[in-house]
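Good day; I would like, with your permission, to put a structural problem before you. I would ask you to consider whether the tokens describe a fold that such a sequence might reasonably adopt. The full record is reproduced below for your convenience:
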Amino acid sequence: MEIQEAIEHAKEVADEKYKEGFLCYANSGNSENDKKNDECVKCAKEHEQLAEWLEELQQYRAIGTVEEIEPYVRLGEKLNLCDLIKENARLTRKIQFLEIYEKELKEYEAIGTVEECQEARERQKPKIADIWGDGYADGNLVYDTYECPNCGTTYELGYQDYKCCPECGQAIDWSQWSNKMEV
């Protein structure tokens, strides 16, 4: 990767993280979203800083290599070779940080998109299952079937009483039915 590509990548990641942070802020209301927002903004600021450091490194490289600059230093120019070497080392550490951070970011992105994570989060909120019966026992309607409120998959009560739908992962809220039957 060329330094200009790294600068552009750092700026793109910063933009993406600001957008992701905005989505978390828009969906705030719990500490997990607030924490995620803070993490996204922090990541965006770090990538902006990294882009600035890379641009600065690019400027130093435009000046020339240490070997090219050294004669000027000996001739009494105002360039301080030791400071340039220290700055180059500092910027090299920043590039290493970018590589580590980029690896971490890829691991995070492997979990899924923001939309996929939001959908999974929604499925964790319990929803009431639709329950019905198709027969009577001792004059009472027998509730023997229920349907997932998210995907519509049907299950048999008493045998397939899940807390979450095995098909889509939707959490099932049994509170409305607990008075009428045992789940």
User: Anything to note?
Assistant: The mean pLDDT is 81. The first strand starts at residue 127 and ends at 128. DSSP finds five helices and five strands in the chain. The radius of gyration is 29 Å.
